[in-house]
Write a structure and sequence with these properties.
InterPro entries: Cro/C1-type_HTH (IPR001387), Lambda_DNA-bd_dom_sf (IPR010982)
CATH class of the largest domain: Mainly Beta
Helix content: 25-40%
Organism: Persicobacter psychrovividus
CATH architecture of the largest domain: Ribbon
Number of strands: 9
Keywords: DNA-binding, Plasmid
Number of helices: 9
Order of helices and strands: HHHHHHEHHEEEEEEEEH
Protein name: HTH cro/C1-type domain-containing protein
Strand content: 15-25%
Structural class: alpha+beta
CATH superfamily of the largest domain: Umud Fragment, subunit A
Strand order of the largest sheet: 2-1-3-4-9-5-6-7-8
Distance between the termini: 105 Å
Largest sheet: 9 strands, mixed
Radius of gyration: 28 Å
Domain HTH cro/C1-type: 14-68
Number of domains: 2
CATH topology of the largest domain: Umud Fragment, subunit A
């Protein structure tokens, strides 16, 4: 390979790696201990960096000197990220969501109970698993795909009561997510969690937080998220209110017996 061809890869690789970290030329030149004008010449392939400078660049980006010079790193990183994002929310535009239908061909609202959550993380896109889930029929739903999830505990959903049913609409694309809105997220490590989302597109990540504890949050990269379901409704069963209503009714009956002994 001729020297001119080597320099073309070096300059484009330096620019590519720098922009991946959202660094300016001034920032990187300071890390390297050189003037910005000198570094700019490296990216333009008009000046070849010293061996000592190449070693620093290699250490900063965790890339070998040979790869810096001889390999088009944009292609390598694109292949790595495609494999890393496989099965994640980023891939949903090319992925067909597994759903079930009733005997009339109408789409069911598949209902996940806590007993199957561990399996769901592994089998969320396996037709046989989705088919065996309980089904809910809900009228008046808008266009889209919906799924119901029983909220397991306080950590899964700090803002909603345990035992409530979260009705979610499937999010097809990252661009459909609205900041500061509640979503149910299937994460490769945390499993199913219900959180508000703040998107950070510059780093291909999202901040997950709750209204209950806004100062406590997790920032996760897109590729770790398998599915996202947008909040549509919560079905809750207030046992304490039922008990209160029953108590009120009992008091009325007892009072009526006092007023009308013949009852």
């Amino acid at each position: 390979m001729a020297e001119g061809e080597i320099q073309v890869f070096l300059g484009s690789n330096l620019k590519f790696l720098r922009l991946r970290k959202s660094w300016t030329q001034e920032m990187l030149s300071r890390f390297l201990g050189i003037k910005r004008s000198s570094y700019k010449d490296y990216e333009l392939n008009s000046v070849k960096p010293s061996l000592g400078c190449l070693i620093k660049i290699s250490e900063i980006f965790s890339v070998s000197i040979d790869d810096l010079i001889r390999v088009d790193l944009r292609l390598i990183f694109d292949q790595r990220e495609a494999e890393q994002h496989k099965g994640s929310i980023i891939e949903t535009q090319a992925r067909t969501l597994v759903v079930s239908v009733d005997t009339d061909g109408e789409q069911n609202v598949d209902w996940l109970t806590p007993e199957v959550y561990d399996r769901y993380l592994q089998e969320f896109n396996r037709p046989a698993f989705i088919q065996e889930l309980p089904k809910i029929q809900l009228p008046m739903l808008e266009e889209g795909t919906f799924r119901a999830f029983t909220l397991l505990d306080h950590e899964m959903s700090p803002d909603l009561p345990k035992g409530a049913i979260f009705l979610g609409k499937y999010v097809k694309k990252i661009s459909d997510i609205e900041n500061f809105q509640p979503y149910l997220i299937l994460h490769q490590t945390y499993g199913l969690i219900c959180r508000n989302i703040l998107m950070i597109p510059e780093t291909e990540s999202m901040m997950l937080f709750s209204n209950f504890r806004p100062s406590s949050f997790n920032t996760v990269p897109y590729h770790e998220v398998k599915e996202i379901w947008a909040y549509q409704a919560v079905l809750r069963f207030d046992a304490s209110r039922k008990a209160a209503q029953f108590g009120e009714l009992l008091q009325l009956i007892l009072q009526a017996k006092q007023d009308f002994p013949s009852l």
